[in-house]
Write a structure and sequence with these properties.
Length: 495
Amino acid sequence: MTKLTDLTITEAVHKLNAKDISAVELTDAHIAACEKADKAALNIFITPTYDLARHQAKESDARRAVGQAGALDGIPLAIKDLFCTKGVRTTAASHILNNFVPTYESTVTQKLFGAGGVMLGKVNLDEFAMGSSGVTSAFGPTISPWSGTDPAQAARKLVPGGSSSGSAAAIAARIAMGATGTDTGGSIRQPASFSGIVGIRPTYGRCSRWGVIAYASSLDQAGSMARTVGDTALMLRTMAGFDPKDATSVDVPVPDYLAALGGSVKGMKIGIPHEYRIDGINPETNALWDKGAAILREAGAEIVPINLPHTKYALPVYYIIAPAEASSNLARYDGVRFGLRVEGENLNDMYAATRFAGFGKEVRRRIMIGTYVLSAGYYDAYYRKAQRVRRLIRHDFLQAFEKCDAILTPPSPGTAFAIGEKQDDPLQMYLEDVFTVTLNLAGLPGICVPVGLAQNGLPMGLQLIGRAFDETTLFKVASALEKGAGFTAKPPFTA
Ligand code: GLN
């Protein structure tokens, strides 16, 4: 029999419904797995909640016994520590929120728990979701379970990608069946690619941002991460939907994403953007991209060349807009209302001392860049200009979608890198996001599916970009890609 921790969410739901297994058994197996990962020092959890998980699992079994099980009843999940959870410490992986215990629940986690999801704990991330590696966490970096894939480099500890580093590592290590992530500029898709799992960032407005600690509000969006396309669809169907508490959540019906799975892609047009073939990219990345196109062609889709002419401006535009919004959002951490306070001689001293002690280096860098681009005299040159180019980027996509139904690209330039690498050179780190930030700027959905292994043995995924509110097409194409790729590799560490 398959190990309980190897089951997909879909398989586990079947077994739970058939009474082959109980939610308590499933949760206990995952808690044991979490403890094993903890012994291996993967540093996935910031706050484990095993007692709560056991309690939720018991309640889940009781609900199922009387025929009242929800769509995710009894499924053990990891929650990115950016989602406020009522009564459970929520840190955003920042020292400044070290002792913050929310008095309310985020809408997304509320929906997951309302459908019976079990919370194993709050997992690690880059501080305030600013990063592509997990290393900016005030709680130390998450270690990828893929570390040691190459025996010659067994001592090299790898990043799982970021900022949803704990979420991706938990799923790859088989200690959680699914996880929440957030994606402002790639934080679901890049860690999914590095960790050999699936992650979807839905359309801006599809999931409520209520109770998700804000990084850059016009780009932030919650999404699901799991080991199969079907599992991410199942989770997203629960997480999505209009919420009057978030003015940017959109009041459109959530389709039955599961119905799209396994559907034919015959006759669909898949765009390959010319501008994504950039210099200096790992040749294996391009080879995998070609392989993905071949898989979809074989499945009956037509591959069409497209153009996204303003692609080269996306990264600089993102690194103006995201820090600008961050500098404004993070102004609230002033030592008065929540979290840390460091006393000073007067109010200004107290603000400065609190913020200096509370924020890590990368967060301070973003606040400074953001404050600069918004300041009088520079606003027009940077922020306003960036907003204008953002519109052109969005327009590129609208035009491209007249020629195709979905766009296929790599999610990142290469495979997982070592902890410490790129750390002293922020620009190198920002380049990680060159293929992911474009769709955030345009507000579009994107999914990353594992497609193969690089020569170094590490997983590589491919990204599909869709039209606004058309996650259904993305799930359909992603499931064809998943089927054709047949990715089954497991990391050296699994529970
Ligand atoms: N790596 C990008 C950044 O640092 C994206 C992060 C995210 O999507 N949260 O801003």
